[in-house]
# Entry
Amino acid sequence: MTPLVRAEILKLRTVRTLLWVTVAMLALVAIPVISIAASSGATSTAADDRSVARVAAVAVVFAVVLGIAIFGAEGSHGTITQTLLVAPVRERVLAAKAVVAAALGLALGVLAEVVVLIVGVPGVSLNVHNARGVLGGVLFACAAGGVVGVGVGALFHRQGPAIVVTLLWLLIAESVLVVALQDNVKYLPAHVFAAAVAGGESGNSNLVGSWAGVVGALLYAVAFFAAGAVLFARRDV
# Structure
């Protein structure tokens, strides 16, 4: 497994995908935090602290996209064939990609939180103690999101369609399904991950509790990985 993990890391070091994902994520975290610091005074409640800290949750989306790219790029460019010639056990290949995606997702979460803390602590007197639940949830959700991305990439076998469908689901589909599912929408993936980064804040009937969100995010990561593994094992590359 270790040589496969090293190989996946080497692949990412030789392309610019990781660089551009990181730069885009940092920009989308820094801009709103700087705007909050410039336009408002100090945070006055624990809810304010959690609200500022949740800006870092943008990293979860980028972790999913990066996970998709880690697998889907090989399918799009046809290099998955060479990978399987060197490592023919497909489950081990997919597991190595999931390990790398989880680690890099976690790294994206750490970078996002560093930006939030560097700007938020002096800018709006962000209380880290009040925001600790959000910060911990973001890190977990980023790692789980990376694994989800690998599973989605394996299901689609191409990064383009996988990323488009994922973003459409996150931005549009779940919002539309609120009308049909009502309270049950809280069990859908985006809502579960949103609960995981909520930091224990209650009052939203469309979200499960934070710990339930963490468990749900883990279950979704396992489910997408397993579904991707089954389809990957049966697909002729």
